[in-house]
Design a protein that fits this description.
This protein is α/β, with parallel strands linked by helices and 292 residues long. The protein is 47% helix and 13% strand. β5, α3 (81-94) and β6 (98-102) form a beta-alpha-beta unit. α6 packs parallel to α7.
């Protein structure tokens, strides 16, 4: 159901307020470049520092601007099940195509707790649900067996964003999941090997700034055109890596600011990039022709 390129869009700020004009322009650029969808208010959208009103406002704005021209997968995860349900129901009411639900962080539930958490959300909403396993941020992994159980028990659990950094997880998931269940890479630098192992696309940070190129790489890889996909992967590999030299989305916002598309503002406890990393990222962007 969800395959191709989905951009985890940033939430632009100006003077600590949501910069709607910059957000609208970013979404229009994504659609013009042919992405399959956008993901507002995920990790890249700084969900932890948006209050509930802002969270819902950003999702609603993304849906309105997209206007059905691409899919909108709304970030609605939380480490409190009741909060995740409330955000998911609100996204459904706003017209989202699906919800992205990060594994509950900090409180580190058991696999049984994860199963109940996602089952309750599935019972409360008719939206298709995309699981999001990112143990580096959450401290827990959504186990392969738990994903299998959820896919079997909850018809609306249809996809997983896999950001554990291990290609063999894709193979393990493919062994136990139906063909209709899609897997999306959560790491730009691993998109090509993930697709080779059975994934269907990516939720991309890099596509905020190179949406057309990421889309071309994904389409080539899915079509079996390894030479074209590898050429793009190699061309942008340094960028894929350098967009994570400091916590996401600090580098991607800085990159977009160099192109005049928004301010580099992030909300505390995230902070401005170091001067050394600014120079490194600028040099990488220059090497691939993205800044002068």
């Amino acid at each position: 159901m969800f395959s191709g390129t989905y951009t985890a869009v940033v939430t632009p700020f100006r003077d600590d307020q949501f910069d709607q004009a910059a957000f609208d322009a970013l979404i229009e650029a994504q659609i013009a470049a042919g992405v399959d969808g956008i993901v507002p208010v995920g990790t890249t959208g700084e969900s932890p520092t948006l209050d509930h009103d802002e969270h819902n406002k950003v999702i609603k704005r993304a849906i309105d601007v997209a206007g059905g021209r691409c899919k909108v997968i709304a970030g609605t995860g939380s480490n409190a099940t009741t909060e995740a349900i409330a955000l998911t129901v609100e996204a459904e009411r706003a017209g989202a195509d699906a919800a992205l639900l990060v594994a509950p962080y900090y409180n580190k539930p058991s696999q049984e707790g994860l199963f109940i958490h996602y089952s309750r959300i599935a019972a409360a909403s008719k939206l298709p649900l995309v699981l999001y396993s990112i143990p580096g941020r959450c401290g827990i992994e959504i186990g392969v067996e738990t994903v299998r159980r959820l896919a079997e028990a909850c018809p609306t659990v249809v996809c997983i964003k896999e950001a554990g950094g291990a290609v063999d997880r894709v193979g393990a998931l493919r062994q136990v999941l139906p063909d209709s269940f899609t897997i999306l890479s959560g790491d730009d630098s691993l998109t090509l090997p993930f697709i080779a192992a059975g994934a269907h696309g990516v939720v991309s940070v890099a596509s905020n700034i190179i949406p057309r190129e990421v889309g071309e790489m994904v389409r080539a890889a899915r079509a079996g055109n390894l030479r074209a996909a590898t050429t793009l992967h190699e061309r942008y590999f340094a960028l894929f890596k350098d967009l994570f030299i400091e916590p996401n989305p600090v580098p991607i916002k800085y990159a977009l600011s160099l192109q005049g598309k928004m301010t580099p503002e992030v909300r505390l406890p995230l902070c401005e990039m170091s001067e050394a990393n600014k120079a490194r990222l600028t040099a990488t962007l220059r090497s691939v022709g993205l800044v002068a």
